[in-house]
Each structure stands twice: as structure tokens, then as C-alpha cells.
Amino acid sequence: MHELAATQQILEIAINKARENQVSRIRRINLVIGDLSSFVDDSIQFSFDILTQNTMAEKALLSIQRIPVELLCKNCKRPFTPHTQPWRCPQCQSIEFDIIKGTEFYLDSIEVDE
Amino acid sequence: MKINILQDIMSANDRIAAKNQQLLEENQVIAINIMSSPGAGKTTLLLETLRRLKSKFKMAVIEADIASTVDAERIIEEGVPATQINTGGECHIDANMLSQALSQVNLKGLDLLFIENVGNLVCPAEFRLGVTKSIMLLSVPEGHDKPYKYPLMFTTTDAILVSKMDYLPLSDFDMPLFKQVVSGMNPKARIIPISAKTGQGMPDWIDWLESLLEKKYK
Do B9 and A5 touch (CB under 8 A)? Predict the structure, then answer.
């Protein structure tokens, strides 16, 4: 439900950057979202289609790269992607870890007409 | 042509959060963001907390709900000033909404400001507000398996209150497992089992709040 506000931010950052570079048309927006974030691709796409109307990003392709969760076991120091619950290190069975990937939510790049 | 950006989408929110933090620090206000599912007992905990602390500290509450002012009215009946934010359908409060609410709160001489977020275990965790501490409630009837379903909430909070402890004998809630799982994900979080109804754990929670205030007066 909070995708609309987030998508407004995405567009604002993208359009400002395009203007700084004096380009008039955005063809593609490359977004990165970690699997631990609560942002839903379809909801972002839905907001994107509406918000880009009559802007330089109208009909631009929205590409979303998903980053799987990666944890670092505090016991044996190995990184792992959890597949089962509770999250457990496959090596040493520890349940103590740091989250190293999966919380990303950033605008990676835009592709524009020169 | 490709233009690299690498900018966090939440950076605009985070900038406003930093201003909120500065404003709160300038006024030496300890601000606590309270999050949970709807019905986990945020307002009940808050009312009970205000009753126990209002003779000692100057407090205020910001209540956020999608609609209605019922919660703020209950706080005001307790003799504590409350400001209601209606988020108008948004499932969380963001730094900008808090900034607007802060402009309506008299921060001068205030010790503690509670911000009751919209009932939701998902979205509120995504938005930094600039508060001193964020806490969450998980009520016993919700079940001990929630940390894996809502990891962001459980890993971004400073204290996790397990509420409605009076229901524990009736439920399958596995407290040792829950504690083990949470401390694995978020070792810095303090876990405090409470029941606002029976008073169980309330002194621990009050101590935790008072320890924040002691730092302020050091």
C-alpha cells in the first residue's frame, strides 16, 4: 500500500537525474529491491504506469532486479541464503546471524535517449 | 545511454527523519515509535504506561490511524496531550507526516513523546522517522512464528514487547523458541513479556523507559 509514495520518489529521482544530464526521454528505469523489503513489484508497476503518464518517462520500461536474502552466520562466519524456517545455518545449524543482503531498495540507473 | 544513479529510494524520507531527530534532540525529548499489528494492544499499553508515569514526567502522544480520533480521545481522557494524525489510507506514518505532527506538539519541557504508529507489521518498518527508539508489540495470540514473516520489523526495533501474556497458558506460543529466534535475528533488542491487564512485566517496561530518561538527565 505504500508503493505509490515510493514510486513517486523513484520517478522524482529519475527525472531530476535526466534533467541534470539534459536528456528529454527516459527509456528504462533499473530498480533494485531486496526480498526482505515489503515492496511489491506489481504494485510499483501499477503506480509507475499511472504516474509516468505525460512525463518524460511515459512508456519507459521498469526493470526490477530482486536481491535474495543473504545471512552471515555469526558462529561459523559462512554466508548463506535461508530456504527453511526457522532460519538456520546449513553448516553449523546456528540461528544467530547478521543480515547482509535483502533489505535493498534503490534506483540503480536509468537509460535515456542521447 | 545509461546513467548510473545508485540512490536509495527512501533518501528523501531519511532526510526529513534526520531533521525530526535534530528537533527532538534540541528539545531533549525522548521519542518512542510504537508499532504492532492492529489489536496487539498498543493503546492499552500506552494508557497503562501514562498512568504509571504521568506524575513523574511530562509526556505527550501522537496517534496515527488511517481514520478516526478514538485513540487520541482516550489519551486525552487520561490527562495527557494527544495529537491525532489521520494518514488518509496510508498504512504507516512517514517522516514527513511526523514532521507535520511535531509542529503541533509543544516540545518545550517535554520528557517523553510516544508515537503510536498505524497497526501494521509491514510498512511502518520501512520508514525511518528520526525517533529515539522504535519498539514493537507482538501479542501472544498472534503466534511465535511472526519474526520470519515480518523480518524487517523484528530486526529494526530496539525493544520487542510480547503483549497479552495473560493468554499464554491458553496458547501454543513457544516463548523460549521465540526468544532464541529473535535474539538470533536482532541481538540488541530487549524482549519484554508484558500484560497491561494483569500488570505482568510492566515494571520491566517502565524501567526500560526510565533508563532512556536517565541518560537524558546525565
Answer: no
